[in-house]
User: Fold these one by one.
Assistant:
Number 1:
Amino acid sequence: MRVGLYPGTFDPITLGHVDIIRRAAMLVDRLVLGVAINRDKGPLFSLEERVEMIERECATLSHDTGTQIVAHPFENLLIDCAHDVGAQVIVRGLRAVADFEYEFQMVGMNRAMDSSIETVFLMAEAKHQAIASKLVKEIARLDGDVSKFVTPHVNNRLLTKLCKISDS
């Protein structure tokens, strides 16, 4: 069984993430979404909320692709997380050339720690390349419409979290 690991904070999961997940699911039999516990970033959503949103958004994708897609929180090194979940492949999404420089360094470090685990880069679809969770949260905080960047469920969760709508 080919296992892939797609790591991120997913705070919140966006349509860009969903695009990468959909395409990564076609490359592996099991796709683990490594939900980073990064206390330094100060996520808007709790770990439990991020995992719930991921599981909800990926249930249909899992069914449609025939690939098992699961969320797996982690707080250790990415390469150690890959070992923990039995991943042979790390999937990284790229939005722009600027992402590549950082990602290239990460691949070098990961390969130095374990050269048997490959990293695969997937470019986001053109319509999703500008989407970043950080920008989505900022737009939502300033009363902007983020419905083009996230699913309706995630949009409602954002608005509720930011006290823009009631939680009913």
Number 2:
Amino acid sequence: MGKKNLNRVYRLSISEDDSHRLIRSFRFSRLGFALTCLTAFIVVLGSLYALIAFTPLRTTIPGYPDAHFRRQAVDNAITIDSLESAITRWKLYSENLSRVLSGDTTLNIDSLLVENE
């Protein structure tokens, strides 16, 4: 099956069964047919990719976050940051309170909060 067979021309004829009237005839070579199939496959894959990537269909893919979940993740990150700063303030307050009860000098909480943030 060398180069000669790839360029050999074939004919596909579609004819009516009863009268044998020719309806359609196609001429092609193996190489042309293979290239046409490959091009059609690439176009179909590209179209499917574009359809999924650039339309709201991508939210139907399991595990893909939609806008609501992304917004909720940002809100959760902000809430976690606020809670971390509140815990830091409580720790400093607790440390200061234990120093007061033990008779030591107190810490300036405002200056420590600025350093920790």
